[in-house]
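If your schedule permits, I should be very grateful for your opinion on a structural question. I have a record of one protein: its chain in single-letter code and its fold written as discrete structure tokens. Would you kindly read the sequence against the tokens and tell me how you understand this chain to fold? Thank you for your consideration; the sequence and its tokens are set out here.


***
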Amino acid sequence: MRMRFSPRSVLAVTAGVLALSFVNVTAASAAPGVVIMEQGSNFQQVKDPQGGQCYPGLGPDTAIFNRTNGTILMFPDNFCQTRILNPLGPGEFRPDENVGSFLALD
């Protein structure tokens, strides 16, 4: 028998997980490692991003590689304020993202 989840329960669980993630943001610990972004000839690295700090991205069509031990959230705006859930876990790579900014969770 297949379990089915309503969109409302999936949204509630997602919101809860996100809220719990932000609980750990208050401690300004670094996520050891580096976040690497490339967009055409533009290249940017952020070493040991601090939890809860917003970092600028390179915009649309950005390749991003999370080589930290923590999860980051990517945002299309420049100030980590868009209400969107776009996480990138440790060791994950995305070849084509709109990264206006990112926030290290841990």
In short: Residues 23-27 have pLDDT under 50 and may be disordered. Strands lie at 33-39, 42-47, 54-68, 72-75, 87-88, 93-104. The CA atoms of residues 32 and 48 lie 5 Å apart.
